[in-house]
Every structure is written in structure tokens, then in C-alpha cells.
Amino acid sequence: MPRTFARLCFHIVFATKHRTPWISSDLERELYPFVGAIVRDHGGTLLAISGMPDHLHLLVDLRPHPSLADVVKAIKGSSSRWINEEGRTSDHFGWQEGYAAFSVSQSVLERVRAYVLHQKEHHGRATYDAEQRELLAKHGISFEESDLEA
After folding, report:
1. Contact between residue 60 and residue 71 where contact means Cβ atoms under 8 Å apart
2. What distances in angstroms separate CA 81 from CA 23, 54, 72, 112, one per listed residue?
3. In the prediction, which pLDDT does 90 show?
């Protein structure tokens, strides 16, 4: 086959350092397009983004290169640098070291998009900790409780 064909969609979740609630509605209005630009700069498409003051959910469509890890590193590094340089928070902003990423097939893409876009409603019913455990279990990812500590 002379050409590579790939559709690599991922649901990515990551939290602020110590899950500090830094992401205000004012900040998210600027942060979400900024994250979209980073994804585009890496050849991908941001399909959906939403979150809460202490974490983000992204649905992205990426190319095989760069890797998912490289794209997440760029998103977290560039966005935290921008937030700090622009003085968007009252304290030094940072993201937690890790992240969760789940592959998303075409057959459930719209359902995952709706899930991402309705985070505020979802978190009226479930905490971040409960959501994190549920997503990991749903995707068959084993973990230790210490892995989930802020």
C-alpha cells in the first residue's frame, strides 16, 4: 500500500497540579482555543474539549506521528507556559505529571464527544475521583490507589 491511512482518536484526561481549581470560565474561553491550536500544530484535530476547574477532557484525532505522548506533552507544556507568562492565575499554574488516554473507535465517537462536551453536567453527579476510577475500569486499565493521588 503506497500510503498510510490512520484515524487515531483519543479521549484524553488530565488534571491541574494538586487538582487546584485554576480553570475559571474566563480562562477556559481562552484556553480551549489555545489547546486546539496546539493540536493543529501537531497535525491533529481537536474534536471536543471541556472540563472543570481542576481538569480537562479532550477528544482528539491525531496522526501516527508525533506520538500521543508528544502531543500531550506539548499541550501541557505550552498551555502552562502561556498561562503563567500571561498571569492568567493568581499562583504558579501547572498540570499534574500524568494523564489518561483512551482510544475511541468511530462507532462510539459521537457518544464520547457528547460525554466530553457535557462535563459540567456530569460532574454535578460524579466527582473527578469517581470518574477517573470508572474510566480506568471501563477501559480495562489496572491501577493502584496510590496512582490516583493528587
Report:
1. yes
2. 14, 17, 14, 29
3. 81
How far apart are alpha carbons 130 and 123 in whole angstroms? 10
Helices (H), 1-150: 25-41, 68-85, 109-117, 119-122, 128-138
Nine cell digits for residue 100 = 489518561
- DSSP-based three-state secondary structure for 11: strand
Distance CA 78, CA 15 (A): 15
Mean pLDDT by 10 residues, the chain (150 residues): 87 95 95 98 98 96 96 98 91 94 96 95 84 90 79
Tell me, what's the pLDDT at 144? 84
Q: Give, in degrees to the nearest 5, the angle at Cα 10 between 9 and 15.
A: 155
Q: Which amino acid is at 144?
A: E
pTM here is 0.92
